[in-house]
Amino acid sequence: MEVLSIATKELCINEEIKAKEVRLIDDAGEQLGVIATSLALSKAYEKGLDLVEISPNSAPPVCRIMDYGKYRFEREKKEKEQRKKQTTIDIKEIQLSCRIDTHDFETKLKHARKFLEGGAKVKVCIKFKGREMSHTAIGLEVIEKFGEACTDVGVIEKKPVLDGRQMIMFLNSKLNVPQNGSKKAPKAE
User: Fold this and answer.
1) Which residues of 18-53 are buried (b: 16+ CB within 10 A; e: fewer)?
2) Is the pLDDT of residue 40 over 60?
3) Which of 1, 33, 112, 160 gives the lowest tally of CB atoms within 10 Å of its CB?
């Protein structure tokens, strides 16, 4: 039993097709109309090809005469090419505190800079414990100072936001950010 999964649908081939009638498309792409499944199957076998159910949910199901092995090979080749083109961006997290000392700050800054130079995104967060919640301005100063110290290798993607008992800021590597606003179309002069 040979079945190919596309998105969440499965393709039935040859004898696996259970419908009595199908809408047939030949190997040249021409529609031959609604035909009995046995007749469509014999036409496919005459040409030495397979009968593949393309759209099983329509009434009657749409089937196509094609070389299934070649179709499956080309499909897998396209999927492999798409996977090659995908890029994944890692998100690294740096945790600070309101009462961080200068050496600890510099160490965490060095780590964040290393992550940004490597092309990763950095999530900087400060967790407020106990009475620190009433002094969020101190945490804001620390996190903004951290963001400013990383501006040569990264860009602040999301400004510091207080979310419950923690303040979060996202930094993105300059390697991932398009230069000179190339996202937007150039203005006509």
Assistant:
1) ebebbbbbbeeeeeeeebebeebbebbeeeebbbbb
2) yes
3) 1
H-state helical runs in 47-175? 68-85, 102-117, 136-149
d(CA 14, CA 22): 12
Is 182 a residue whose pLDDT tops 70?
no
User: 25 or 56: whose pLDDT is higher?
Assistant: 25
Please compute, for residue 173, the number of CA atoms within 13 A of its CA located in the half-sphere on the CB side: 16
- At residue 67, φ and ψ (nearest 5 deg) are -85, 105
pLDDT average, residue stretch 17-41: 85
Q: In angstroms, what is the C-alpha Rg of the chain?
A: 29
Mean pLDDT value of segment 143-169: 90
Torsional class of 87: left (φ above 0), alpha (ψ -120 to 50), beta (otherwise): beta
d(CA 44, CA 159): 61
| 70 has a pLDDT exceeding 60 | yes
* pLDDT for res 183: 47
Q: Domains in the chain, start-ordered, CATH in brackets?
A: 4-68 (3.10.20.80), 91-176 (3.30.110.10)
Distance CA 38, CA 98 (A): 76
